[in-house]
Predict the 3D structure of the following.
Amino acid sequence: MIKQENFGKIINFGINVVLGIGLTLTGLIKNHGVTLESFLIGFVVSMGVGYLICDIVPACGARFQKSISNKVVATFVSTAITGFVYILLISFFNLFVSTGFIVFQVWPHTFPILYLVGYMILLVFMPIIQKIAVFLTK
């Protein structure tokens, strides 16, 4: 199997695959329309930026999660905070690559829906990806 020290990398990769697909499709549907070329470019950029951001920026929501006693509420708050930072940066750079400097006109209108989609993706897929990472690093 895979070494335990790679647990975080597995989660980072897995969540960025799912976020890359979801955010790219949402952004393209909202702004351009989906073509294979635009999807592949958006997905690759999203994966690259997302993986780098998740490696550099710590999961800032985890600090709040420890201070909330209700586990469900703690998960929602932690995901909202961490997701906001990640989705903000990923969506901005992804749209910058696809639209250039027009991003400053497009992104503010697109970000709320991207955040909503990204937040839902994180809530649904993070537990699944964590279980996969646990299985792969046994």
